[in-house]
Amino acid sequence: MCLMMYLAVMAATLLASALLFLVPSRRRLAVRLCSATLASLPGILAFQFVVGIPLGVLLAAVTAIEAAFPSDSVRWAVGLPTIVIMFILLVAASVSGCYTGGRIGWQIAGGTPFRAAIAEQRIVRYVLSRFRKDRA
């Protein structure tokens, strides 16, 4: 359902950028908007993939707990918070991935090189700094 909503917003944004492209003074904005829209999907998928790995481990742990204690009260006490945590983390990953991917697309359409646009993102700098501290 969320993907269908995203695709509808994406189609509306692409239509708006196509209409803006018809106005000569707004073509640069149209290209940036189109690029940001198209780059947001890979951002969403990348962030969901990164969050999906720990969520898979969490789901395996919850499954093991439910197998060890097969009562309904344990199933509700462990399963419901797990579902809520998974939903919140996936929504947060989707929103931040959409923003980061859109920002990268916007900067690339503005003339920033691909590597520089990625390196300027706060989350990318944070992740890279965490890896650099471990090596030193």
Task: Kindly describe this structure.
The protein has helices at 2-21, 27-68, 72-109, 114-119, 122-135. It is mainly alpha-helical. The longest helix is centred in the middle third of the chain and has 42 residues, at 27-68. The chain is elongated.
Give the topology.
Blueprint: H1 2-21, H2 27-68, H3 72-109, H4 114-119, H5 122-135
Helix pairs in contact: 1-2, 2-3
In a few lines, what is going on in this structure?
With 136 residues, the protein is mainly alpha-helical. 88% of the residues lie in helices and 0% in strands.
Distance between the amino and carboxyl termini? 45 Å
- What Rg is obtained from the alpha carbons, in whole angstroms? 20 Å
How much helix, percentage-wise, in residues?
over 70%
Largest sheet: none
Q: How many extended strands?
A: 0
Task: Kindly give the count of domains.
Answer: 1
Uncertain residue ranges: none
Output the structural class.
mainly alpha
Number of helix segments? Answer: 5
String of helices and strands: HHHHH
Strand content: under 5%
Based on the structure, what is the oligomeric state of the protein chains? single chain
Shape: elongated
Mean pLDDT across every amino acid position: 88
Keyword list:
elongated, 136 residues, mainly alpha
